[in-house]
Amino acid sequence: MLFIICDDLNDYQGVFGGHPQAKTPNIDKLAAMGVLFVNAQSNVPVCSPSRNSFITGVYPHVSLDYGWTDLKKQPVLKHNKTIMRLFKENGYVTLGTGKITHGNVEADWDQWGMSLANNYGPLYFDGENKIALPTVPYPYSEIGAVDGSYGRLSDAGISLGKNGEKGLVYGWSNEPMRYINDNDRDLMQDELHAEWIVKKIEELEQREIKQPFFMGVGFVRPHTPMHAPDKYFDMFPIKDLKLEHWKSEDVDDIYWKNNFDPELKGTRYYKTLLESYNGNRELALKHFLQAYLACVAFVDEQIGKVLNALNESEFRDNTIVVFTSDHGWQMGEKNYLFKNSPWEESARIPMIIKTPDTNAGLKVEQPVSLIDLYPTLMDLCNLKGNHKKNKNAGDLGGFSLKPLLVNKPHKWEGPNGALTLVGNYGIKIPTEKQNFSYRIKHWRYIKYSNGQEELYNHETDPYEWNNVATDLKYNNVIKKLRKEVHEIINN
After folding, report:
1. Using one digit for the tens of pLDDT, what is the confidence trace for 302-347?
2. Residue 341 and residue 267 in contact, taking contact as beta carbons nearer than 8 Å
3. Which residue spans within 161-239 are E strands per DSSP?
4. Domains of the chain, each with CATH number or no CATH
5. Is the sign of the CA dihedral 348, 234, 21, 188 positive or negative?
6. Considering only CA atoms, which of 174, 152, 151 is closest in space to residue 163?
């Protein structure tokens, strides 16, 4: 079992069609060999609770995990077994590296790669503090070293890899990263993760005892700070870039500002970016988009290294591969630049599953979500045992995707759609008063905390420009989707 997850990766891959200029040959190749879920969704579009949820199989509205609580300390989920733990209990050797969860459960892994403290970045260190790259314009640079930084590695200047000097450092650890030029430098974190996985595949081939394995790798790109070597930026010249479809009045019929603080990151980041380019929306977003596409191309290459190593090994034909992301990212749609929103760009994720007997190239339109991965892996690998450590654990919320992995799909036992919770209120208000987004094949329905609703017809409105929730002719659609959301929440 090989599990690959990226961070903040939306549908900007060739096979998912999110951006026409995206360059992702390795992800595209995997899709051609596996099953592509074109309507997969995140259950909560922000890093920590999303990962805590799918790694335990428990919905966020069940665990009430909406923020950045360490998995080992979350009041409900600390009583659940991670999927790695269940594999380990079933005789698998577990190996992992990168960002898979926030707060690693060390006992779940037989072998672990890079320290979590080193994952973010590389960050720019000015000799005293970690800040944005010097090339990032003000005031966007004031957002900080992580979310406020994007650009080429070369923008940091030469760094000899000595403590206390200006230059690049690994994550929060302040460990210096040597950089002279793109051909003379230390490896970035995701390169080190890929290298580690490749090495472990080679080692597994040399074992005398043939024990099955669960191998997990969490790539950090394209998460901010969006830094990558020059060659990836050179793939996307600013003058040639195409921006996402957008219309200025798109915010006129949404209820975000009535339910969320307008100074939350997504809206604030968008306004700050435009301010940094003197209000020139096109120029501002093209600079940001260039960095995002560069980081996507960079991580695709690392994924390719891992997949090539697997395909050249003895495990090629008997290994299940899962590729996905924790959530998406909005690139200025609805004047929003971040994740953690209820709309398509933030909630939709890439998902590919390849099994030895998968029908290669199959596209599944049934909306599914990350919550379905836990029961799917249990089903595909015939894992035995309870997913709970004790009675205080949360119940499994998803359904096995195995029936959808064949050319003539069996009956899907799961719900009609996929549920996403935008939990900015935390546990301050009851579950039913949280903000929910629900995606079925042709519709997206959003129910805000104050009762306001949005409804988008994806057959005629793929960019979610026209909220038709107040149109009386869609009353029956609204009632049906309200009922389905209620059933999932209260199941």
Report:
1. 999 999 999 999 999 999 999 999 999 999 999 999 999 999 999 9
2. no
3. 167-170, 175-177, 179-181, 184-185, 213-218, 226-228
4. 2-116+188-239+267-405 (3.40.720.10), 122-187 (no CATH)
5. negative
6. 174
